[in-house]
Design goal:
Blueprint: H1 2-11, H2 16-26, H3 35-48, H4 52-79, H5 90-99, H6 104-111, H7 117-127, H8 132-161, H9 165-190
């Protein structure tokens, strides 16, 4: 199949490692690129081929690209008068405002795994004046945790896909939809209910 051949060419390309961190970095201010899907697919293929060096390289470039993108959004947040994503992610933005300066580590790491959380948290760090000397180590830590999670996901889908790039993309897409749905359900269930008027 041409699609499978094309995807296989992408994950085996010599351009993958140079371009993947750029995709992940650009994904921070403009979360439209399929960087997570490409990373997951490449990890699954590397596990299938028992390519330890590729796995380590994928982890390293994922951390690098993630931290670089965080710094870009942090800089945009510092220069803005309005929290990026605030209108769309009001609940998360309000939560970040309450917790970011007091507990930057848990706030930045935890927000990484909420849909839209990377954009809101890193922009908030800049907007609310979190010093870069505090932001950068926690950005690297959250990037490393996220990269390890992505490697784990790639490892989990590898037995189901056998390293087939098309099946990896499909599995990654299904997983992303399920994760987003679970977060949305959780937020709805945890949202405070308005009291019912009596009379």
């Amino acid at each position: 199949m041409d699609v499978v051949a094309g995807l296989s060419a992408v994950v085996h390309s010599g351009w993958l490692l140079p371009l993947l961190p750029l995709m992940i970095a650009v994904d921070a201010p403009f979360p439209v690129l399929p960087s997570e899907t490409v990373l997951m697919t490449a990890v699954a293929v590397a596990f299938t081929e028992h390519d330890t060096r590729m796995l380590l390289a994928l982890f390293a470039v994922a951390v690098l690209g993630s931290a670089a993108g965080d710094l870009v959004v942090y800089g945009l947040g510092r220069s803005s008068h309005r929290l990026v994503g605030g209108s769309a992610e009001g609940g998360l933005a309000a939560w970040m405002r309450r917790h970011l300066l007091a507990r930057p580590g848990p706030a930045l790491v935890g927000a990484r795994f909420v849909p839209g959380g990377r954009l809101v948290s890193t922009a908030a760090a800049g907007r609310f004046g979190l010093p870069v000397r505090v932001f950068l180590p926690w950005s690297l830590a959250s990037s490393a945790v996220w990269a390890a999670y992505m490697v784990g996901v790639g490892r989990a889908i590898e037995p189901m896909t056998g390293g087939n790039p098309l099946l990896c993309v499909l599995a990654g897409t299904v997983l992303a939809v399920l994760t987003g749905g679970l977060f949305a359900l959780g937020r709805r269930l945890l949202r405070p209910r308005r009291p019912v008027p009596v009379g």
